Amino acid sequence: MYSKFADHQPLHRQEKIFERQGVNISRKTMGGWLPSVAELLAPLYQASKKLLFESKAIGTDDTGVKVLDRKLPFARIGRIWPYVGDAHHPVVVYDYTPTRGRNGPAKFLEGYQGYLQADAYSVYDAFFKPARGLTEVGCWMHARRYFFKALESDQQRMGPALHLIARLYGVEDRSKGLTAEERLALRQRLSAPVMEKLHKYVLEIRQEVLRKRLVNRDALIAEPRAFCVKSGLGGGEGFPVVWEQLLDPADRMRGHSREHIAEPGKRLDRIPLAHRDEA
Question: What fold characterizes domain 57-137?
Answer without folding.
Answer: Nucleotidyltransferase; domain 5 (3.30.420)
